[in-house]
Fold this sequence. Notes:
Oligomer: single chain
Order of helices and strands: HEEEEEEEEEE
Helix content: 10-25%
Shape: globular
Largest sheet: 5 strands, mixed
Strand content: 35-45%
Strand order of the largest sheet: 1-3-10-5-8
Signal peptide: 1-25
Keywords: Signal
CATH topology: Jelly Rolls
Number of domains: 1
Amino acid sequence: MKRQMKLSFLFAVILTVFLSQSVSAYSGLADSKDYAITRTLGMDYVGKLDSTNDVDWLKYTNTYTFSTIVNIFVMPMNPAVNYDIEVDYCNTTGYCFPVNVADTGFGNTEYAKAINVPPGYTVYWKVKGHNYWDFGFDYATAIHS
C-alpha cells in the first residue's frame, strides 16, 4: 500500500512538471488569502516568487456534498531553493486553523497529506521562500485527492 501511495505521489509530481498550467507570478499576484488562486482537485499550477518578500496563496474549496481527503504539495524546480508551504484549514464560518507541515529542506517537495475537507470548507496554502535568497525560480504545486 505504501509503495502504491509513493508511486501515485511521484506520478502526480511528474504530471505537474510536464502538464501544468504555467504562470510567471510576480509581487502583487495572490499575495494574500483574499486574492488566493482557486484550484480544483487535480489542477496543477506552476508559479514563481520574484522577490524575497513575494508569496503566493492558493485555495481549494470542497464543493462536493461529501468530505474529500486531499494532499497538497509544492516542489521547487531548482535543487538549490527551499520553498515552504503554510496550510490553513477554514470552516464554513471562516474560522481557520493551521495544518502542520514539516520543512523538508533544499530542493525537496513540501507536502501536507490526508487533510479531511468537509463540504463547504476551504484549504488555503501559501508558498514562500524559506530564506531571503529563496526566490527567482519556478515551483510546481497541486492538490490531489
